[in-house]
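Next up, sample data.

:::
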Amino acid sequence: MKILHKIAGAFALLCVSSGLSAQRPDLYWSVDMSAVFDNREGDTEYAAAKTFFQTQLAPEIGISLSEDRHRIAAGVVWTQPIGCEWEGHRLSPTVYYRYQNKGLRFAMGMFGRDQLYAEMPNYIWNDSVKYTQRNIRGALIAYRNDKGYFQAFLDWRGMQTETQREAFNIIASGERRHAGGRFLWGGLAMMNHLALDKSGRPDQHVIDNLLYNPYVGVDFERIAPGLPLDSCSLRVGALGALTRDRGDGDWLTPVGVWADLDIGWRFLELKNTFYAGGKLYPLYGRYNFILEQGEPYYAASLYNRTSLGVVFLKRKFMTLKASLDFNIAPSHFNFYQRVMLSFAI
């Protein structure tokens, strides 16, 4: 009996030690690097005529469990303008937990926008926000399969202090494909909240801002496989907002037609975004980027952006491209010339 007890004890110890070794954490690390040159020329009614020329380095290190289903990582985002040595640099923290199991993803902390399954349209984040703010600050829940995706996240972009107003976005978006991917429908909804700082200023009021964008679309490349294009899709829908300054008490309800065309052929890209209707950002002149983070041209009743791009180099870990971007609003025009490099390992 003593021998049997010893064997049973040894077997139990082996099972426990095997379980522990199966959960032994693996080292995780990654490095993202990007560089952008963006020269803007034209009138300054909505976008300043200026030049962005900067680099951004974002190393991360951490541990992962269960084949990277569970990950804890930390790092830093170093954004550095070029041409001024150290002046103007910005360091931002990266600290997050992420769970990934097949198509299900959950993240919480401060993590990169590359955790999203789909990029945000330019009425949510403009180019300069993407250049300077790499991380989402909050939480993400997302799911993706071969028919589409859904994602929802909280971006807490401002904690209340004596000088800074509390501000956050809650955004949900998704898209589903039908008939072998030939037809699609989707949408986006956002609650954008701008609250008060701690100063107690009597002229400061809470701003409520809701935005919605349901749409339908067609993938022409799948409808007509014989097209000499690598990709060709069109999405059309409504784009509207509900905005209120609680100091005034009135709800402003602009709405319009939105269309997005995306074409790719070999190393060439064409993207056109069109909006016509009410002024989507009716309070932009009062609050500027404190409230709205999308392209400021949505403060106009009509906006069209055409981007002509050339991909010079595309590898699994690196992309180099250039584009000419034409921004048109009533009586206003701005022309961007951009070169963008991204590197990730």
The CA atoms of residues 23 and 65 lie 6 Å apart. The helical segments are 2-22, 127-132, 220-223, 284-287.
